[in-house]
Amino acid sequence: MALAPQTTANQIISAQNRRRLRLGEVLVSEGLATDADINAALAKQKHQPGKRLGEVLVESGIVSEIAIGQTLARKIGLEFVDLRTITLQSSAVSEIPKKVIREYAVFPLRSDDISITVAMSDPLSADALDALRFSTRKRIVEVVAAPSQINQYIDQSGVSGAGQGEGETSLAAEEDLGDLLELGQSSDVVKLVNRIVLDGYRQRASDIHIEPNGDKDDVLIRFRVDGQCHIYRRMPPALRESLVARLKIMARLDIAERRKPQDGKIPFRIGSRNIELRMATLPTAGENEDVVLRILANTEPPPLDKMGFSQRNLTELTRLVNQPYGLILCVGPTGSGKTTTLHGMLASINEVNRKIWTAEDPVEITQPGLRQVQVHPQIGFTFAVAMRAFLRADPDVIMVGEMRDEETASTGVEASLTGHLVFSTLHTNSAPETVTRLVDMGLEPFAFSDALLGVLAQRLARRLCTGCRERYSATATELEEFCRYLGRHEVDRLTDSGVLKLWQAPGCSECDNTGYRGRVALHELLINNEAIREAIQRQSGTAQVRELSISGGMTTLLQDGVVKCIEGLTDLKQVLAVCSR
After folding, report:
1. Positive or negative, the Cα torsion across 463, 468, 473, 475?
2. Alpha carbon distance 134, 76 (integer Å)
3. What is d(CA 46, CA 29) in angstroms, rounded to the nearest whole number?
4. Which residues, other chains included, contact 508 with Cβ-Cβ below 8 Å and sequence gap of 6+?
5. Most-buried pick from 123, 156, 186, 303 (CB within 10 A)?
C-alpha cells in the first residue's frame, strides 16, 4: 500500500481540526458510541490512571481500535494505514529519539531527504506532533495506525528497551530534542534555546526570528538563510513567555520590561567555536514580544580573489588597498557582506610592518595582527572618539565600522589626509550615491575629494545550486533584456558562438529543492579620478558622478550581476531582486 504524501494545506487543516476535536464527541457523532457509553468509559478512566479514553472504550468492547483510527483519520484529513500491509524502511526508526517513540506511541515508517512518514496512535495529540517536529528537521508526514500494531513494532524494533540506540548518539550529546518537550523545569527551556541556536548555526542562518502569536496559536520560529526567511519550527504557545524570558536573561535585559524595544548581546560557544548573538526585542500586537537574534560567527575572511570580484575590480581594488594613504569605503544595505569584504581587504595588507587599528560594533571577525576595539556608544566611546584615539596610537591603517555621522566622516578624512589608509562602511545604495551623500552630510568637498581613493558598493544575490544547475539557450526576450543591461557588443563577447547560454536550477536534495544554495557577491567599484574629483568639488549630483564613473570604467551592480548570470553563478531574477534597474 502506497503512503500518500500530505500537502502543506492538508497539514494546516489537520492541525487546526485536531485542536477542536474530542474523541467522545467524534464517536457519538459518527454513531459508533452513545453518550451513555462515553460517560461510562470516562467514569472507568478515573480509576485507571494513565489509560486513554480510546483504550477504555476498546477494552469495554464498545468500539474497535481500527474503527477509532479510521474515523479520526477521516475527520482530520489523514490517511489510515494497516501496518501489516506495508513495507517499512528499517533505517527510519533511528531518525526519531526513542523517548519520543515510546512516550507518544508513534513509529517512523520511511524517510527521504525531505520528509519522514510517521504512524500515530493518537492523531488528536498535539503534543505528539510537537515532539516529532522538535525531533527532526524533516517535514513530518502523519498517518494513523492501530495502537496495537504500533506497539508491536515498537517492541520488535527494540525501542521499548531503556538502552540508547546508535541513531541517538549525536543528539544525546547535544540534548535530545525529545527530552526537551517536558518543559516543566527551567533547565529544559535552557536546553531548548541552546538547540534552536545550534540548529540556526548549522543551517547557515544569519538571523533567528522568534514570533509569538498569543496564548492560543503556535510560536513561529524562522531562520533567514541566504537572505530568505523560512520556517524552522512551530512551538506550543505555552512556551512563548519562557523562551523570551530565557533569552532576555542571557542578554542581561530587563525581563519585566515588555513595553519598549531592548537590545543586547549573548556570547555563545558551539564546540570549539565562539559566536555572538545580537539580540533585539520588539513589543508586537496582542501583548506579544518578538525576538530577533543575529548570529555573528567569528570566521576568517576569504581572500580577495575568492570573493567573486571581476578581474577588473580585483585588479583595481588590490591597487587601492596597497596605497600608503587615502579613504576606501565599502557600502551597501545591512547584511550585504560589507564587514567580510573589509576584513578581506585588511587581511591582504596585514603584515608585521603595519600597525592596523579597527573600531567595530561589534567585533564580528578577529584577525591576528589587528588591534581591534569594541566601541560603546552608551558610555560615550563612539567611532569618532575611537578614531581620534587611534591617531595618537601610531597607526598605519585604520578601519572604522561605520561612518554614521559628520564627526566620524570628517575624522576619517582628516586621518587619510595625514598619511593613513582609512577603511569604513556606509549604508548607501550605490557607489556614486555615496559620494554625494557624504558631501550632503557636511564634509568639506575639497578635502573629501583629495582623500577619497574609491568606493565599493556590494550586494549579495542567491547563488544557483551547483548540484542541479543546468544550461539552456536563452529566449529572444531574455536576449533582448540582457542586451539592454549590458549592450549588444558585450553580450556578443560573452556568448558562445553568438548564442546566449544561461543557467537554471530546478532544485535537488542539496538545495532543499529551492534551486539555490549560498550567495554570490555583486560589486560596483568607483575609482576616484580627476573628473570625479572636480565633480565632488563642484558638489555635482549623483547622476553626473555616476556618468563620470561609468566613463572611467565602472561596471554597475546590475551589469556585474548580469555577467554573473551568464557565468552560471546566479539568475536574472535574483539579480533584479537586489539591484535597481
Report:
1. negative
2. 21
3. 23
4. 465, 467, 468
5. 123
What residue ranges do the domains of the chain occupy? Answer: 23-156, 186-296, 304-461+519-558
Compute the distance between CA of residue 389 and CA of residue 391 in angstroms, rounded to an integer: 5
CATH assignment of 304-461+519-558? Answer: 3.40.50.300
- C-alpha cell of residue 53: 479514553
CA 363, CA 265: separation in Å to the nearest integer? 12
Q: What whole-number distance in Å separates Cα of residue 516 and Cα of residue 226?
A: 9
DSSP assignment, residue 325?
S
C-alpha–C-alpha distance, residues 461 and 570, integer Å: 7
CATH class of the region 186-296: alpha beta
> Across the beta sheet with 452-464, what order do the strands follow?
370-374, 356-360, 397-400, 421-426, 326-331, 452-464, 516-527
Alpha carbon distance 374, 38 (integer Å):
67
- Mean pLDDT per 10-residue segment, the chain (581 residues): 44 47 77 83 72 77 83 84 82 82 88 88 79 80 88 73 35 40 55 88 91 90 92 88 89 88 86 82 92 85 92 97 98 92 96 96 87 92 95 97 93 96 96 96 96 98 94 91 89 78 90 90 98 97 96 96 95 93 70
> Residue type at 346?
L
Nearest alpha-carbon partner for 453 in 317, 554, 256, 342? 317
Superfamily of domain 23-156: Type II secretion system, protein E, N-terminal domain (3.30.300.160)
Handedness of CA 377, 380, 381, 386 (dihedral sign): positive
What does DSSP say about strands 273-284 and 262-270: parallel, antiparallel, or unpaired?
antiparallel
